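ligand=2-amino-3-ketobutyric acid
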Amino acid sequence: MRKKVILITGAIGEIGQALIKNLAQSHENELLTLDLQRLPAEMDGYSTHIQGDILDKYLMVRLITEYEFDTIYHLAALLSTRGEFAPELAHQVNVEGTLGLLQIAAEQSQRRGQPVKFIFPSSIAAYGLPDLATKARDFYVREWDWNQPTTMYGCNKLYCELLGSYYNHNYQQMATSRPVMLDFRALRFPGLISAFTLPAGGTSDYGPEMLHAAAQGKPYTCFVEPDRVIPFMAMPDAISALLNLSQAPRERLTRNVYNVTSFSLTAAEIRDLVLEAFPDARIDFKPDLKRQGIIDSWPAGLNDKAARRDWGWEPVYDVERAFHEYLIPNIRQRYQK
Ligand code: AKB
């Protein structure tokens, strides 16, 4: 008999660590986590952890023989800046890795006669706005606006959203009897800011980096101009969004992919919030035109009306609460230790 588990790939990434800590609080959840690296020691006992590669077919076959995946949170990905240094590797991990897992979820859905839930974090990187004037005009983009990403990561995310929808609705459409399809649900996240972890290889990283550097008394040079704006969200809201979308009744969902957002800030506004908390912080701005170009192609805000309407999405942390109740106190404590 195979063991029923929730599978989390990319487990040691920022979202992964926060999601595991949350899911492990309930004893009902049996977690199987997968990552190229070990889980941090403080997370020992939270899950059965496999150190391995989602592209390793033998490993994946072994896992299928031992486990039944009830829900899959597929978080493993190479982020936007890193993806530009290794676009083909990004494609392999982000697209081929996702395709392999979708196939596994599709087969398991058929075998057990019940859909496997496949939860996928997509990103503002799926958008590509042509210039700053359009970005200012079309501030809150809807899911179907400007789906013309300029990065490999953004292309990968957009295509994987489509692949997920295909496996959800049209997989094996020529078969004589309709197979049980998997249940694919995706969120387009803005830049995420955690008090406990730092991102690696993304382009929205200047937000969290500025804050964590200031708390450690380190100088920080921001790689975009002060007036550049994108949407952000505090990590606890990102975790609630994943869990709430996963628990929403299927019949309430009118889309496979939902925008979710919390607050939009310019880099200067982030600096001001950081300086309010850490008045000695040394922050300057020296744009890296290539990374800034990526930020310029991402929207200034997201229209998340569909998520609010269909499954009651609402962020708990607006900008005030995010900084004053979650980020600053926790970051202070973290580096004081
Ligand atoms: C990145 O910057 O690549 C990510 C994202 C916005 O998806 N944080």
